[in-house]
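Review form for a predicted model. The reviewer records the input and the model, then writes brief findings.
Reviewer: anonymous (R2)
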Amino acid sequence: MNHQKYWNPVLETMPREKLKQLQFKKFKRILTWAYTHSIFHKALYDTAGLTPDDIHSFDDIKRVPKVEKSMMRDIQKKDPYPYGDALCVPLEEVSAFRQTSGTTGQPVYQPDTWQDWDWWAECWSFILWSQGYRARDRVFLPFGYNIFVAFWAAHYGAEKLGCEVVPGGVLDTQARILKIQELTATAMMATPTYILNMADVAKNKMGIDPRELSISKITCAGEPGAGIPSTKKRMEDAWGARVYDHSGATEIGAWSYECEDQPHGMHVNEAMFLVEIEDLDTGEIIEEPGRRGKMVITALDRMAQPCVRFDSKDVIEWDANPCTCGRTFRLIKGGVLGRSDDITKVKGVLLSPAAIEEVVRSIDGLGDEFEIVVDKQGDVDRIKLKVELLPEVTRSSLENVLVDQLRLKTNLRYQIEYYDYGSLPRYEVKAKRFKDLRKKH
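Model under review:
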């Protein structure tokens, strides 16, 4: 099997028409399951005057009400405690608890049955196999095993492939680097922020060149960085390894992946998820490539707490071209482009923090860390960008390039503050580099 190109050749190369038929059949099944087993979902659909019998075609799916994270927060901490009315199985069938990170508000609790957890591992098997993971790999996981899903399911997916998994949970960064060196680990998974942080610690605190370690491939998740060309290049240059992007979420599952062909985008695992793209202004479902919108997603096989037409807030767009790898699963161009929550107007211009990251990480002489602060000076928006200068680099040597690139890529003018290398905060999990202080006012 190690020579096989696809983890599941039948599903990954299924003709588009058959794949859509499979998705519709699965959508009807999970919708019916939620309607008949979840008090929350039944009330939501009854209020809309809709039952599963009203869904006859793909075009009808957009009639099904969306679910937002705030709704899930409202129903939890009630019986059956702590999940509330969305739980679709008896409490004794729940075998795994995770919760969202809480970066956008109160955490949401996520129950999974053993069947659901096996589904998580299968989703990750698609991802890892497509990125070249095989039974010969020794995979190091440098994340704190905690109540957040993070790379928990990746651990089980890697084991399912036959990989040897090394859990680096309680080790600090230096100990993790030494363990990678000691065991000659061949692959690892972490957020882009932490991958860059590890490389910095190895090189500047330990005198170890990450490129001389044995890591040949890295899977990133949790942030858009691996889909941003300049950030991907920094990671690949630092480690001498190929870096792959992936996106998933606690309440959704592991829904997308970049394959070995690295098409500057990610496949949607359409055998297990139905992804719709909704226009940010009109709510229209976007089918054609080249138009950005927010993702509405359904996990087609997750049973304990169903994810049916979940408003993820992730901004994506369809790619016009199929991937050269031969998979029929559609690509989202450039991966996840940001969150609709973070895309905001500054001085009348739509701004995405990912566009600023692309500029900062593309300029030699600037460190990996940066911070964006938007506030008001009187009635006028002001945007401040904090960056670090690498040792022996002068502000004058790159200031004009930074200003010009920011203006070109974002059409905005910035108040730029320069800091000594190592001055800005470092993060091990998800970074918090964007602060919009106007909302507090």
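Findings: The chain is about 30% helix and 25% strand.
Further findings: The longest helix spans residues 16-37.
Recommendation: see findings above.
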